[in-house]
Fold this sequence. Notes:
Blueprint: H1 5-12, H2 21-31, E1 41-45, H3 51-58, E2 62-67, H4 70-82, E3 88-91, E4 104-110, H5 118-131, E5 132-143, E6 154-155, E7 162-165, E8 178-179, H6 186-189, E9 195-205, E10 210-220
Parallel strand pairs: 1-2, 1-4, 2-3, 4-5
Antiparallel strand pairs: 5-10, 6-7, 7-8, 9-10
The site of S-adenosylmethionine has 22 residues, from α3.
Amino acid sequence: xxxxxxxxxxxxxxxxxxxxxxxxxxxxxxxxxxxxxxxxxxxxxxxxxxxxxxxxxxxxxxxxxxxxxxxxxxxxxxxxxxxxxxxxxxxxxxxxxxxxxxxxxxxxxxxxxxxxxxxxxxxxxxxxxxxxxxxxxxxxxxxxxxxxxxxxxxxxxxxxxxxxxxxxxxxxxxxxxxxxxxxxxxxxxxxxxxxxxxxxxxxxxxxxxxxxxxxxxxxxxxxxx
Length: 225
Ligand SMILES: C[S@@+](CC[C@H](N)C(=O)[O-])C[C@H]1O[C@@H](n2cnc3c(N)ncnc32)[C@H](O)[C@@H]1O
């Protein structure tokens, strides 16, 4: 469930304006060859201030972004307007996507589901599956267990690998849930996607004082559903 703490984050912090390299590679490999890019429909859940939407719109794709944060969406709208680009922006909760079944060719989750409990994340990823066309692709980037800060993090009762704050980790503070994904949780979280590929990115930051670990899960909705 979206947490209003995100509004405070976007009100007080300048957010990154560029897409992650893994997303650029994924979109390039799977969609750059499309005959008519404007006919390829992307949805980004938890689009924040729009870094990934700007990239998609710049590349000529049809982009829709959903976020719970009005402030983030206002920032995304301003950025798109400055660059004379367009994308549909909707305020809502990724747990109940306001889109028809089979509406999108690709759903992107760049660190949205991780900010939700396990049960809520499961629901978000099921919703992503529902709105994908048969054969459509999910790109999901999600923080992994082992990311710095677990030892001193304030745990959320009743949940594995889930924290309310991780002051010694690479995360912003005060927006609610930080859920790290363990490898054995991937088949459950992404269970709707029978065809999956799983990679990871591990890097250090701040002069090696923290380690950031992320899964890159790519799922395909089966052609028959
Ligand atoms: C870590 S930020 C990532 C923003 C963006 N994807 C990017 O790469 O710059 C997480 C975003 O997901 C949004 N979010 C988290 N849970 C959500 C939910 N259940 N419904 C809608 N938005 C959500 C937050 O408001 C925030 O904008």
